[in-house]
Amino acid sequence: EAGLWQTLSFSKGCYIGQETIARLNTYKGVKQYLWGIRLDAPAEPGSVITVGEEKVGKLTSYTDTENGAFGLGYIRTKAGGAGLQVQVGETTGEVVDVPFLTREET
User: Fold this and answer.
1) Are 42 and 62 in contact (CB under 8 A)?
2) How many domains are there within the chain?
3) Are residues 8 and 22 part of one domain?
4) What share of the chain is helix, strand, coil (3-state, %, to 5)?
5) Which domain holds residue 59?
6) In this structure, are residues 58 and 74 in contact, taking their beta carbons and an 8 Å threshold?
7) I want to staple 71 with a disulfide (CB 3.0 to 4.6 A). Which of 35, 62, 92, 103 is the partner?
8) What are phi and psi of 15, to 5 degrees?
């Protein structure tokens, strides 16, 4: 979910959680991913993320940057990814990639 695939080993022997990780990877079973959200205005962490009337996730963190408001949030895989227009609490935003997260096994 957090997009930290580069931190996992798929060739190492047994370790705690290895079977679960292998199953998620094999069956593409991750139900939500951590995405960046470029926001039009500040938003409170914990705010619901929606597309239309459908709840698709939750904002986990927020910060002001020199380039504007930015947040991180978990969004359901089936809702879409980068470029998706979302409502976050009372503001709107666009889902963007986060450069240090990966979506696939490396």
Assistant:
1) yes
2) 2
3) yes
4) 15, 40, 45
5) 31-100
6) yes
7) 62
8) -150, 160
